[in-house]
Amino acid sequence: MEISVFNSKGQDTGRKVTLPESVFGVEPNEHAMYLDVKQYLANQRQGTHKSKERAEIAGSTKKIKRQKGTGGARAGSLKSPVFVGGGRVFGPKPRNYSFKLNKKLKALARLSALSTLAKGDRVVMLDNLVIDTPRTKDFIAILNGLNLSAKKTLVITNEVNTNVVLSSRNVPKVKVATASGLTTYDLLNADRVICLEESLSVLEELYATK
What we know:
Layout: E1 2-6, E2 12-18, H1 21-24, H2 30-43, H3 103-119, E3 123-126, H4 136-145, E4 153-157, H5 162-168, E5 174-178, H6 184-189, E6 192-196, H7 197-207
Parallel strand pairs: 1-3, 3-6, 4-5, 4-6
Antiparallel strand pairs: 1-2
Helix pairs in contact: 2-3, 4-5
């Protein structure tokens, strides 16, 4: 698959680049993508939720009324879950939501997401992305040139670019990630993906042989 290469001003350079079939041309595996996204979201959960059960409620354990003769149900303590202020039955407890996935399945999920984006014409290829000093205004100008200012955008760089990260962190709907730090969630959550030419070789090296 060939796509046009643009410069940082949004102008077509007249060149085309061939996306590697081993990265952008695989048959998407929806279940692998589902599992990888599920693991990512599960790992974001702190798992610190907690409610008190009847044994943890502070208060008296005195029997509040006699056992028989009141015409109502018997009750032994105000800590009972049936009373306001009582303990909760089977309430949430601190737990770890994370689970394990095999590396090959995670790689397949990322390849599936990249291929889905490519087939949907949602990949924008840039020849280079140079920002000399961190300026949000400069980064917004690049998005405007590519007509991506109103879309959720993921920028894939070949390595950590501090100026690009700092320039984009205050821009809504934009995330910058390295080719080695991609997640399936970020890929599927983006309307458009800006990919630098230099990052293609990194993607191919990371995932093509998985």
